[in-house]
Design goal:
2 domains; three-stranded antiparallel beta sheet; eight-stranded antiparallel beta sheet; about 400 residues
Length: about 400
């Protein structure tokens, strides 16, 4: 299926709601390709000597166009929009509702684990207020003293620090990709469990490893962060989404009803497919109450505003932002010939048969803060194999277009 460019956005319209600024020294620290660092040492310095000359459009066409039902990207440099382009379809030709819907920079799509990068920014505003020692406090006493949790957690949970949650060194076990949604969180057809109840049940499961000893990516780390954010901010239970909107999105000029939101748009949002020739109905993602782990939806333009808000130090000052990036708090860091870059991806997979014999339908998102003042958002609604050891990782497509080697993990 050939791709078509949809609704390229003017710089003037985009910049009305985005403040320009400079993020200090995002290229001053880097990480050789390895597993994320444990603890909090600064990463070795990498000089940004060559000048990047990205080839966004041609590279994305080469890597993605023939593999996905559609895709969208939005790029800025030094706080100004370079281009925002949607290609092909966000909803396939066989849908009952809005078939052949073009994918534009303003089409809403699930962000999945890019939500963790958003959670990290929100939590770091609390760290900036309360001090960096907060990161090395154990989280369980904070939950217990809140009065919201009265049961006893599994052995070792009370020794897990907040930093270990944010960097996936907590040792929490369970399904690393499990997300409690409104479709799988119901009991006997009843209403979904409250997040606190779901989390307490999880925290009573045995740890997979000793806290601080092993990197183990788990959505549940950020479910704890969601609850901790509410408690430490003095916000009511189940107010996390509104708190992030008020604390992070609104100051960045992001429309929280349509650019980044926790409210689904079932008739219009992007659906999952296995590729451009998938004739099955696309998969619609159920709501995800674990918002910090994977529950936000966003448009390419809206997510780019989030990146530009980081670069402009709208809610975090430059030292706090740099600490978040280099210590890999909710983000990952890698080095290139141009300097260090910071990134996060998210993705969902739908198997339409229990035996997993049919091609899986997938939806993916990626963000990257790059050297040379570049910020990039990329989304695709099909698997994109062959770019990286983690085949679905769109950061590989971004770094290919940027002229840098892809990271080894995300």
């Amino acid at each position: 299926m050939s791709g078509t460019r949809n609704n390229q956005v003017s710089r003037r319209a985009f910049l009305r709601t985005v403040g320009a600024g400079a993020l200090a020294a995002t290229a001053s620290a880097g990480l050789a390709r390895s597993a994320p660092v444990k603890g909090s040492p600064l990463l070795p310095s990498v000089a940004a000597t060559p000048t990047p000359k990205p080839t966004w459009d041609s590279s994305f066409k080469n890597d993605i166009a023939a593999k996905s039902m559609g895709y969208v990207y939005a790029i800025a440099q030094n706080g100004s929009l370079v281009e925002a382009v949607g290609v092909a379809l966000s909803r396939g030709p066989n849908e009952k509702t809005n078939p052949n819907q073009s994918w534009t920079p303003d089409t809403l799509s699930n962000l999945f684990s890019v939500s963790k990068a958003i959670a990290a920014v929100g939590f770091m505003t609390i760290v900036a207020q309360q001090g960096t020692s907060l990161l090395d406090q154990t989280f369980w006493p904070i939950l217990a003293n809140s009065g919201r949790f009265t049961d006893t957690p599994a052995t070792g949970v009370d020794s897990i620090t907040i930093r270990q949650l944010l960097t996936h060194y907590s040792g929490l076990g369970g399904d690393e990709s499990a997300l409690y949604t409104t479709s799988n969180g119901q009991a006997n057809g009843g209403p979904p469990q409250p997040v606190d109840q779901w989390l307490m049940t999880f925290l009573q499961e045995p740890l997979a490893s000793a806290p601080g000893s092993t990197y183990h990516y788990s959505n549940q780390n950020f479910t704890v962060i969601q609850v901790l954010t509410e408690i430490l901010a003095g916000a009511p239970a189940n107010s996390y989404a509104q708190w992030i909107k008020d604390t992070v999105f609104t100051p960045m000029g992001i429309d929280t009803t349509g650019e980044i939101t926790d409210v689904r748009s079932p008739d219009n949002q992007v659906l999952y497919y296995s590729g451009p020739d998938d004739t099955r109905p696309g998969h619609l993602q159920a709501a995800v109450p674990l918002i910090a782990a994977g529950g936000w939806l966003g448009t390419a333009n809206g997510v780019l505003k989030f990146l530009l808000g980081l670069r402009a130090n709208t809610v975090l000052d430059a030292p706090t932002t740099q600490m978040m990036f280099t210590q890999q708090i909710g983000w990952f860091s890698d080095s290139s010939i141009f300097g260090s870059y910071f990134h996060k991806t998210g993705g969902g997979t739908n198997y339409t048969d229990q035996a997993h014999t049919l091609p899986s339908q997938q939806l993916h998102s990626a963000v990257a803060v790059l050297p040379g003042g570049f910020d990039a958002v990329l989304m695709a609604n099909s698997p994109i194999p062959g770019l990286m050891p983690v085949a679905s990782n769109l950061v590989g497509a971004i770094t290919n277009a940027f002229g840098a080697p892809p990271p080894l993990r995300d």
